Amino acid sequence: MTKSVVLIGGDKGGVGKTTVARTLLDYFARQQLRVRAFDTEVPRGTLKRFHPDVTDVVDINHVPDQMRIFDTVNSTDANVTLIDIRAGLLSPTLRALGNIGFIEAANKGDITFALFHILGPSIASLDEIVDTAAYLGDAKYFMVKNFINNTYFFEWDDATHAAYFKRIPSAVGITIPKLVEMAAEQVDLASVPFATFIANKKQSGAPASYSFVLRGYVRHWLQTISAEYDRVGLTDILEAKESSRAIGRPRPIIKIAES
After folding, report:
1. 74 neighbors 2 (Cβ within 8 angstroms)
2. Does position 244 have pLDDT exceeding 80, yes or no?
3. Cβ-based neighbour number of residue 53 at 10 Å
4. Which of 45, 133, 191, 193 could form a disulfide with 39 if both were Cys (CB 3.0 to 4.6 A apart)?
5. pTM given for the model
6. How far is CA 57 from CA 48, 136, 150, in A?
7. Using CA atoms in the order 222, 204, 34, 247, what is the torsion angle rounded to 10 degrees?
8. 92 and 7 in contact (C-beta within 8 Å)?
9. Is the peptide bond before 121 cis (omega within 30 degrees of 0)?
10. What's the rounded Cα separation, in Å, for the pair 257 and 259?
């Protein structure tokens, strides 16, 4: 099985990137895919708080941390490397991946590369689509509309919607519905994965006493998202057959801040 790298990012902040990353980690666990994750919100990291066993906090601008991620893609036991890119660093990160030959390797089939681009409802956020697509080559591009704030993403304006969402025909749209606010707050307070909250367990695995009602809301919400991931064939994409080539050791990594 070819190793996979999944980036979750968006140059705009506050669009729910880490929430999507958390749903993906729960989904991969249910699919029995071995995953390692990297949280680029240094120094503490939000993703690390919910998934401490599989997540390391890294500075994506720091060359040794870049090497920790990309020099070990093939040698790790994990099938999937998930990277939660903090706000403002998606475009620079993609540019750097192009410069080191990573995207070229993905285009050759040496590795499966997928981007979950979390969009905001503003024109500035939508302008990221064309800029981002220019870096990706043949990577799997998922445009994610996360209704974290009951946003509308310009569906009311056909011309605007078509100008952005239909400009990249190879992109696949994914919709993340809004989770009831009280349920979202309770999961945050519990500092556990969504699936662990549903199972009424603490981070340690000990029994918890979370609300039956709120667990029901989270269960329904997560099932809806999992159905979206099933619909786009995410598992099939990431379980591509082993390529005859290996990604090899990337060329020296330039600093993202300078790329």
Report:
1. no
2. no
3. 9
4. 45
5. 0.87
6. 7, 25, 30
7. 110
8. no
9. no
10. 6
Task: Write b or e for each residue in 143-177: b if 16 or more Cβ atoms lie within 10 A of its Cβ, otherwise e.
Answer: bbbbebeebebbeeeeeeeeebbeebeebbebebe
Say which residue the tokens 């401490």 belong to: 52
Name which of 189, 188, 203 is nearest 148 in CA terms: 188
Q: Which two tokens stand for residue 148?
A: 């974290």
> Closest by alpha carbon to 4, among 97, 76, 89, 93?
76
Q: Hey, which residues does 118 pair with through a beta bridge? A: 144
Q: Model confidence over 130-155: pLDDT tens digits?
A: 778 778 877 898 988 888 765 565 55
Say whether pLDDT at 186 is over 50.
Answer: yes
Maximum Cα interatomic distance, the chain, rounded to a whole number of Å: 52
